[in-house]
Structure formats: C-alpha cells, structure tokens
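User: Teach me something about this protein's shape.
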Amino acid sequence: MKKEKILEVNNLSISFKTPNGLVRAVRDISFDLYKGETLAIVGESGSGKSVTNRAIMGILAGNGNIDTGEILYRNQDLAKLSEENFHKIRGSKVGMIFQDPLSSLNPTMRVGKQITEAMLVGGHRFKNRFRDLYHNEFHDYLNLETRIKLLKKDRDVRVFEISRNEELSKEEKKAKTKQVKAKTHDKIVELKKDLPELKAKYLEAKKAAKIQIKKEIAEVKAEEKESFAKLREDLAKKKEALSKLDASSPSYEDTLKAYKDSKEKLSNHKEVYKRRFKVTKKEAYERAITIMREVGIPEPEKRFTQYPFQFSGGMRQRIVIAIALTAGPELLICDEPTTALDVTIQQQILDLIKKIKKERGLSVIFITHDLGVVANMADRVAVMYAGKIVEYGSASDIFYDPRHPYTWALLASVPDLDTKEKLLSIPGTPPDMLYPPKGDAFADRNKFALKIDFEEQPPFFKVSDTHYAATWLLHPQAPKIEMPKIITDRIVKYKADAKERASESKTNKVTSAGEENWAKKEKKF
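Assistant: First, the predicted structure itself:
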C-alpha cells in the first residue's frame, strides 16, 4: 500500500540578514513526511532544527529569508504562500507545540479563554464560507503579489551579500549589484503583467460570493423564523394550559414538565440557530472541556477558569497541546516540548503525544537535541549539524547502524544508568555560520576527519534504501574506521532493550512509534 505524503521539503536554504553579514542557518536540506509518521530532527542548539520548522509554519523572523527550495504541503509551496493564505493552513492544518509552556501562555488570561480564543475568533461560519467561495481566485492573486515581494526581498539580500564581500573591488560590487537589480526588475515586470487580470477575476468572484452568501443567510433566517414560530406557539399553548391549572391539580405536574421541556427545546433551538452562524461560547466551552479531558487534565470544568500559574509545568504543557489540537491539525510540529520539564513529566508528555498521534492519525515532526527521547518516539530520524542534514534513516538505522561521526558523538554523549565508561564529549564549538566552512562542517571537531573533509562537502552516500549519511568515510576509497567501543556496546544494549520492549508490547498488545521497525531490524543483526 502506497503511503500518503503530507509534507515534502526540497533543497531548502534559509539565511538571516545581520549587521555582520548573512547567517546561513539552513543549507540545502531535503526531507519528507508521510501520514501517521513521526520524523525526529536531532542536533545541537543552532543546528537549524527550529528555523526549518518555523519556515514550515511561516513564522520566520523579519530578517529571515528563504533563499532557495520549496516546502510542499498538499502540493502547495508554503515558501511562496501569502500570509493571508497561510491563515487557512496555520493552526487548522499545521499545529505547533513550543519549548517552554510558561512563555507560550498568557499569565494574565484564564486557560479556558486561551484554549477557546482561536475557536471564537475564527469561528464565523458564514464569513469563512464567504471567503471559501472566492478563495481560489484570491489565492492566485495574493500569491503572485507575494512572489513579487519575495523577489524584492531576495534582491535586497543578494545586494547586501555583495556589499559585505571583501574579495570584490568597489567597481565589481557596483557591477554585480547593477546586474542583480536589473535581473530582478525584469522578472518583476514580467510578473506584474498578470496582476490586473488576476485582480479582476478575484473581484468578480468576490462579488458573486457576496450575492451567494446573502441568499444563503436569507434562506437560513426564513427557515429558522418558521421553526421559531412553531416552537413559540407550542410554548404559549403549554403556558396557557399551565395557568389554567391549580397547583393541587392531578395533571399539574405533567403539564409543568411539558412546559419546561418545551421551554428547554426553544432554548436549545436558539443555540443551534446561533451555531449555524458562528462558534458560540457554549460550543467552544464544550469542545475545550473535551480536549482538556483528552490531554489528561483532571477536573477540566474546574481547571477551565484557572490561570497558568495555578498549573504545574507538565499541566501547562498539556494546556499548550490542547490549544494546538483545537483546530484539528493533521500535522503537528513539536519543538522540544519536554526541554523545560523534569524527567518523569517528560515521559508523560511523550506518552501523551504518542497517544494523540495514534488516536487522531497525526503526522508529527519532533525536534530535539536528546537522542534518548527519539528512541521511543520516531519512525525516522534526520540528524542536523550546522544547517545541514548529515544522516537520515529509520530510528533503527540511526541507533543500530549509525555511520556519521557526528551521530556517533551524539550517541556517545547521552548518559544512561548502565554506562560505565567516561562519556565522550564533542570537542570545540559549532562553526560560525556567517562564514560556513568550505568542506564538512563537522571536520574541525571530528577526530576521524580525512583531508578531503576540509576541502569539499561530502554528498549523501547510500547505506540502504532507508539510510543515507553525508560522510567521506563511506567513500569506497576511504580508510576503514572502526566505530567507537562505547557505541558498539550501546548497540548491543539497544538490541536487548528492543527485544524486551517487543516482548512487553506483545504482552500488553501495545506498540510504540518506531518499535515495530526496531524489532524487525533487530532480527537482522
């Protein structure tokens, strides 16, 4: 059965304009994500993990620029999507859980209001229906405008880059700047030719949508007017019948009950009528209570009216998860959601994310610097360093058969209860991405580095159909390098742990994300 691809990132490069020059935060990365899958992106702070996912969410800082590449979600390129069109995706299709729940929540606002806020603000159903009717035409017009803005932004970045290049003379800088501006100008002029036609189509579609919505609203009001008239008439009859009876009459109780039922029916019908136009406070409250219960918050009715400071760190993170789930996204980005929590609470949050993923059929991108967290969460893993993906494979590939020295270093630096050897630290610091290294970015910190590592970036070498690593050590002519002993010892331990988990899973009839792959891979060793 062919898997459904949710997200595809191709050759993505992102830079940030700073007073000192351009910081190359992400450099030519590619990955994809399938429905129901968890992809973990692992690496040190500053490796480009969060920047990549902020680009997917369309929330890059103002000085950030997508230099090249595309981010395809359901065949839409998010890298070139207008902010107006992003509103239809951000939250409702792609949700995000941030690192620190305390800074993610407003300390002066009750948590119930924070959970329901987006539902109420974006819950005008006829308004949304109106926008949907002319969305395609508006989408095309805005996206062309956005392409023009992005070209101008890219031009400014290129001009800034030329001005900071000390290898060029003043005349060369002037010539190159003129060339870049002329090239961009020609592209913009060509694109602007299509703007008037697209704008006319969008305005025409909007006018037709306005007529259609007025008609639909009138039909709903007429239908409800008739329904309300019948209900009010029925209520008036029951009220009149009740007024004619004495409280001691045998039929008084039955008549009173019928009157109350009729009154409640009218009240419920009013609520249903309001819901045809917008998400009501009652509807938002009901949905919030359901989601709070789903994420494991006890006594949600009581907690609904409390403030963030009245919650523990773990409970605050559950509130943040609840907010992310209110719009029913199909892709959930978790940006180190357990970093600010202690170890016992971390496991609870990880278990909760796995449970929600399974129940809702979500696809998850999980960002972390902790490979220990990845072990039981991920189906596939991308290891990032200095803005590049250096190793990419299934969870079992990365833990059982790591090939990149940086992945070795990460695995060797993770403490566990059984480790007897001294943990290996990674010497040095990551490179300054104002001046990206010519060769392999990890070469200066890599004791296994070859001469070519300092001269040329390694391509991806295929280890298996699911496993790739960008290291010259995999080149056929490279010398044979043995994996550090601490890693081989840990692989033996991982196999034993995987076998034990597989046994427990059979007993409990529960399989965690990635564990099936682990069990299958373990049999091959």
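Now, about its shape. The two ends are 27 Å apart (CA to CA). The longest helix spans residues 195-243. If you'd like, I can walk through any region in more detail.
User: That's plenty for now, thanks!
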